[in-house]
Amino acid sequence: MARPETLSSDSASAETLIARSWQRSVETYRLDPGRDGAPRVLPASALREHRVPMEPLLAVARSGMETLFQQIRDAGYVVLLTDAKGVSVDFISNPVIDRELKRAGLYVGGCWSEEMEGTCAVGLCTIDKLPITVHHGEHFRALNSALTCSAAPLLAPDGRLLGVLDASALSSPDDKRSQYLVLQMVRHTARMIENANFLRLFEQQWVLRVNARREFLEVVTEGLLAIDGDGHIIAANQRFLHDTGCTAESLAGRSLEEIFGVRFDDIAAHAVRGAEPLALRLLHSGSRCFGMPRAPRRLAQPKLARREGPAGPAVGAGYDMLTALAGADPRMAANVQQARRVVDKGITLLLHGESGTGKEAFAKALHNASARAAAPFVALNCAAIPESLIESELFGYRDGAFTGARAKGARGKITQADGGTLFLDEIGDMPLVMQTRLLRVLAEREVLPLGAEQPVPVDLQVICATHRDLMELVQAGQFRLDLYYRLNGLALILPALRDRLDKADLIEAVLREEARSLGRNAPHIAANAMGALLSHVWPGNIRELKSAVRAALALSDGDAIGLEHLPAGLVGAIQHALPPPRLSSLGFEAVTPAPTVDSAEPDREALLDALRQHRWNVSQAARSLRTCRATVYRRMQRFGVVPPNRRE
């Protein structure tokens, strides 16, 4: 047998991998190589449970499979795509030989796990996650000894096995070296499918394409990095991880500046300009490469139907509420992606965000996307209930537990949420004594109602939300540290409306939904009115937006919404916030401010100090000033502050 190329970091050859597989087939699975009977082919009813979870991948894989088949069809090959269990969920073949292929198991529904068929290319791939050719007599079962099969794994960005791409033939030359080119073609196609799937997964994030050769950057994809709106890496494709020696875990959360020494602001500006590829250098190795950034792509707006999406866009029947939540904002998309990963895994979520950013709606969307969707979603605002009542509201009580109690007692919110999701809003306002009891519920998964002697077991997902800094409350002795760690399984920050990149989409979506609730079509928003809405800082966030749109609809009485239809309070806030030239462009009359002590110069110096301290990194300067990047950019424009690298 010819010795193939090295397939893994420990230099295990194809021969070694195949020998290990034969050993597992005999010792672990107790298979008989002389067993009669063709490989199992699942009926359509049983195949469905394997195929449905693969639909998103199949949508991007099909083109690659068709291209591969066109290249090898004349040599008698078929192309299979299996799930991670080795069950073929899609295939392309010559219909003339369909009967022979089905008898051989090279058919949709064919089961090619090592546990069932012993040593075979697909089975090896599902275990070792490496490309491999299993040729003729290398197959464990004598029945498969005429086949030649070359397979390559399809991996997710985090390294999970998604499926296997396989090219097989019923007959072929005896020399295994004849299959070398086929294996390379399968590997190449598998990488193309992985990259297409990566771009699909991170369509709503920034993506940086990286190639060692500038001239090939736009036609050949090597490295791919998904990046959030603050310049931190969300994920990388397998090629980038392999070439840099990084792992998905070690790379996630690191900034572009740590990897390439380049600021995210420069990357983002480059994407807008659409200029030539960026020259980059990997700091850990000094290797030179080139990059081309891609801005997040906008989601198509779903048709309005029964209910409203948590952050504005309406959600149609069957439409994924979490996807609608993300909109076209990269930070919200990153939040949704992380939330998807932890849902149904028993991890408590803590949502941070200003009042009105849609924390409860986000929690409800996550509940609806979980396995608990059919069970109750129970919400309790810890700041809206008097301290004397919160204990009975949360934990419930038995008959006669206190004066004024109901004759038959009452179930508390925790018991009501059994099997479902409990959402505790403004958890920072929960009294200390209640925090102790809540901690016990989370630790022991049981609740003791007031006046009861026996605890009641509960099974629930807990999601908490706050607009306060819980660690500051811990340091002030107002919040238990052990409860903080128990609740902080995954912390997500929902961006304020003023900082979102999809404000125009949200405004239009809220307008459509509010108009629909009134039983009429959404009117047009005049350009100056839309400009005013986009310029407003929205201290009340989505909640304020809905109120403003509702008022504008009433005042416009079905006509196009103009400046004169916007609420007076909102108009006044805009007039006092914007400079005269911007007000004039929107059709406002500038407001002459009352004489005040000039504080602009100290503000300018503070801004300059922060920018210089952080080497003109706007994101880091914004964090040190406890504000957002958009505000820093506005202040830079207001004070005429220009970064050194942009001065003429």
User: What is the CATH topology assignment of the largest domain?
Assistant: Beta-Lactamase
Dominant shape:
globular
The side-by-side strand order for the widest beta sheet comes to 2-1-5-4-3
Q: Tell me about the biggest sheet? A: 5 strands, antiparallel
Distance between the termini: 67 Å
Q: Quickly count the helices.
A: 27
Q: What is the class of the largest domain in the CATH system?
A: Alpha Beta
- SS class: alpha+beta
Strand content: 5-15%
CATH superfamily of the largest domain: GAF domain
Approximate helicity band: 40-55%
Q: How would you characterize this protein structure?
A:
With 648 residues, the protein is of the alpha+beta class. The protein has five domains: 14-199, Beta-Lactamase (2-Layer Sandwich), CATH 3.30.450; 202-294, Beta-Lactamase, CATH 3.30.450; 329-493, P-loop containing nucleotide triphosphate hydrolases (Rossmann fold), CATH 3.40.50.300; 501-586, Helicase, Ruva Protein, domain 3 (Orthogonal Bundle); 600-646, Arc Repressor Mutant, subunit A (Orthogonal Bundle), CATH 1.10.10. Helices cover 41% and strands 15% of the residues. It is built from 27 helices and 21 strands. It has a five-stranded antiparallel beta sheet with strand order 2-1-5-4-3, with helices on both faces. The protein has a five-stranded antiparallel beta sheet with strand order 8-7-6-10-9. Helix 3 (55-72) packs antiparallel against helix 7 (180-201) and helix 25 packs across helix 26. The longest helix has 22 residues, at 180-201. It is globular and about 85 Å long.
Topology:
Elements: H1 14-28, H2 44-51, H3 55-72, E1 77-83, E2 88-92, H4 98-103, H5 114-117, H6 121-128, E3 132-135, E4 148-155, E5 161-169, H7 180-201, E6 206-211, E7 223-227, E8 233-236, H8 238-244, H9 248-251, H10 256-260, H11 264-273, E9 278-281, E10 288-294, E11 307-308, E12 314-315, H12 321-326, H13 330-342, E13 349-352, H14 359-368, E14 377-381, H15 387-395, E15 396-397, E16 410-411, H16 413-416, E17 421-425, H17 432-444, E18 446-447, E19 456-457, E20 461-466, H18 470-475, H19 481-487, E21 490-493, H20 503-517, H21 527-535, H22 541-556, H23 568-577, H24 580-586, H25 600-613, H26 618-624, H27 629-639
Parallel strand pairs: 13-20, 13-21, 14-17, 17-20
Antiparallel strand pairs: 1-2, 1-5, 3-4, 4-5, 6-7, 6-10, 7-8, 9-10, 11-12, 15-16, 18-19
Helix pairs in contact: 3-7, 20-22, 25-26, 26-27
